[in-house]
Design a protein that fits this description.
Layout (H helix, E strand, L loop, with lengths): L1 H11 L15 E7 L18 H8 L2 E7 L5 H10 L3 H4 L5 E2 L12 H12 L5 H7 L3 E6 L14 E2 L24 H10 L4 E6 L11 H8 L5 H26 L6 E7 L23 H4 E8 L6 E3 L4 E2 L3 H9 L15 H6 L2 E7 L2 E2 L9 E8 L2 E6 L5 E4 L15 H14 L3
Helix pairs in contact: 8-9
């Protein structure tokens, strides 16, 4: 009876591979987060010049969704969405920095004080790290982190970031050294974990600015990029790829790769402005065009998850917690809208996703609708962008993946239908 139950459980996991392979009681989770990278800026996504051999290989070994999305194109609310499984209008972190008091009246309040209140509000929501910790995981924060001290405030057992604004804490402080200055804190953490399952938040500050890649990489891209500013960004993309390669190589060397689930996504897009170093172009970061919200999403587990390149179905960063919950047996709240990306039936049944766009600075943090710039809905190949001010835009992504041809004027019935669906989801 025990063997029958085990086999039935394994058979129920869609995309599962050979049943004879030994399954660890709880897999490790290496969560890889790219910071400011457009969806097409990978070799496996078709970029002509950017070299990403490590991520190309990972994509070939993963269940890879090329039509993945972040529900919001700005880093702080994007990271909060990943950790809580909620949209920004639900978890309350709608921008990077607050500018007014939480009641919308105290315009003279200091940002650190407001930020502390925002972190307190964020911590009222359940999050992925606490759930894993409660299920026996050791959890390490590295890289980008906005919500205070990751251990004291957010449920990590280990962390690099101190989060103290009096010592320069804002969005990662000491944690931002990971990847750029080696991976030793991660190696030390894995060694300390021993036989205990672990979760690593790899929020590396790459290819994010500063675009200051190693000279050999920069020289390589100066030969092919249209401008030096673009060359620096392209070189940072490869630098990011190499840093991930160091992590995967280490897992191989210590014989933990087979026991580790690797998940990859990005916080938001970035299209480098050709004539301005360190700046993004229009229709990328902080916009809900594809250049701001689309990203490949990968889930890999050697000999356990069947590799597949899914170019049709939609995935979002809201799916990360539900997918990890299924893989690890950890709990999650009932109100999450994401799905388990290993569930073929759920993936196939989904045809619609939603997202929202906010100002960089939170105008009225507790009443955030004043900072809302727009919303979007994708239904199959159709995408409707509904700005707070201005006319709706409609695109067919299958025919026009970079949204150059606005079809709203010729497809008014479709615009009305999609806008009604969007308002049924959430109308401020």
């Amino acid at each position: 009876m025990r063997i029958t139950c085990i086999l039935a459980t394994l058979a129920s996991l869609a995309f599962s591979l050979p049943l004879h392979a030994a399954k660890p009681e709880k897999p490790n989770i290496l969560f890889l987060l790219s910071d400011d990278q457009a969806w097409g800026d990978y070799g496996f996504m078709g970029h002509e010049h950017i070299k990403t051999p490590v991520l190309d290989q990972l994509a070939s070994e993963s269940l890879t969704f090329t039509r993945g999305y972040t529900p919001v194109p700005l880093c702080r609310p994007s990271l909060a969405t990943i950790t809580t499984g909620l949209y920004p209008h639900q978890h309350g972190i709608t921008g990077n920095d607050p500018t007014w008091g939480l009641d919308g009246k105290n315009k003279q309040a200091k940002r650190p004080e407001l930020n502390s209140k925002l972190i307190e509000h964020y911590n009222k929501s359940p999050n992925l790290m606490r759930s894993l910790k409660e299920n026996g995981y050791l959890t390490l924060q590295t890289g980008k982190w906005w919500e205070g001290n990751p251990i004291a405030d957010s449920g990590f057992t280990h962390g690099m970031t101190h989060g103290d604004p009096r010592r320069g804490g804002r969005h990662g402080d000491a944690g931002l050294k990971i990847g750029r200055d080696g991976q030793q804190p991660i190696y030390d953490f894995i060694k300390e974990a021993g036989d205990k399952p672990w979760f690593i938040w790899y929020g590396v500050f790459l290819p994010h600015t500063p675009h200051n890649p190693p000279k050999d990489l920069l020289d390589q891209y100066l030969k092919v990029a249209p401008t030096p500013a673009v060359a620096r960004y392209w070189a940072n993309c490869e630098w990011h790829d190499k840093a991930i390669g160091e992590l995967i190589k280490h897992l191989e060397e210590i014989n933990q790769l087979k026991d580790t689930v690797i998940i990859y996504t990005t916080d938001n897009g970035w299209i480098q402005k050709a004539d301005t170093p360190q700046r993004y172009a229009e229709r990328s970061k902080q916009t809900i065009y594809e250049g701001g919200v689309r990203t490949p999403i990968m889930i890999s587990w050697k000999d356990r998850i069947e590799p597949a390149m899914n170019k049709q179905n939609l995935a979002t960063n809201l799916d990360i917690w539900p997918t990890i919950a299924k893989l690890t047996g950890c709990s999650m709240p009932d109100n999450l809208s994401g799905i388990d990306l290993l569930d073929k039936k759920a993936v196939g049944a989904r045809s619609v996703i939603y997202g929202e766009d906010w100002a960089h600075d939170m105008d009225k943090a507790q009443f955030p609708h004043g900072s809302l710039d727009g919303r979007f809905i994708i239904d199959g190949d159709w995408k409707l962008i509904a700005p707070t001010k201005g006319k709706a835009e409609l695109y067919n992504l299958a025919q026009d993946p970079w949204e150059k041809n606005n079809l709203a004027a010729d497809q008014q019935d479709r615009v009305i239908m999609l806008l009604a669906n969007l308002n049924n989801w959430w109308k401020p």
